[in-house]
Amino acid sequence: MGATRTPKAKSLFPMQVSPMDFKVGDAVKKLTPNHVSDTVGVVTHLLPKTFKIRVQWPYGNEVEAPEEIYKVDPKTFPPTVTTDTSYSSHENAESEKAYGAVHKKEKRTAKIAHAVSEKHFERLSFLESEANTLKVENELSSLNAYVQLSQQYGSKVGDDVIRGAITSVYGK
């Protein structure tokens, strides 16, 4: 009678990844055959009827197959996403009713989010000073500064932090 049933079993086969292996608010990264993305997203909706997961990335909201993403520790890999930009739909409304919504998860993890944002600010401030040095002393263009910072710090910070530092120093 209109009640949404949540599946009890997670995966049909042990080697298969199911949307039910994730929770709303989980920090995730995307897998490709030869690469693991640097970008961290947040699970916003579980879509078990279509066997998909809706993830909010810094560049937008996408529907992903559960096999193509994996969970990461939000303290180690802080997501930069703060809002869900997906369109409202019947599928999203059912997901929010059955599994919760991102904004509820954020309230419970406010202390972690604050600590993560402080760390993000520290990294951004450091990279801004590095970018300023490259601009003033080395007279590098924004593209060359981006390449150099990516090579030096790309394994330690996300691409969005490097881009933010370049944008704040060089402008758009």
Question: Overview of this structure, please?
Answer:
This protein is of the alpha+beta class and 172 residues long. It has two domains: 19-100, SH3 type barrels, CATH 2.30.30; 112-170, no CATH class. 40% of the residues lie in helices and 19% in strands. The protein has a five-stranded antiparallel sheet with strand order 4-3-2-1-5. α3 (110-136) packs across α4 (142-153), α3 crosses α5 (159-170) and α4 (142-153) runs antiparallel to α5. The longest helix has 27 residues, at 110-136. The chain is elongated and about 55 Å long. 23% of the residues are buried. Residues 1-9 and 104-112 have low confidence and may be disordered.
Features:
alpha+beta, 2 domains, SH3 type barrels, 172 residues, disordered N terminus, 5 helices, 5-stranded antiparallel β-sheet, elongated, 40% helix, 5 strands
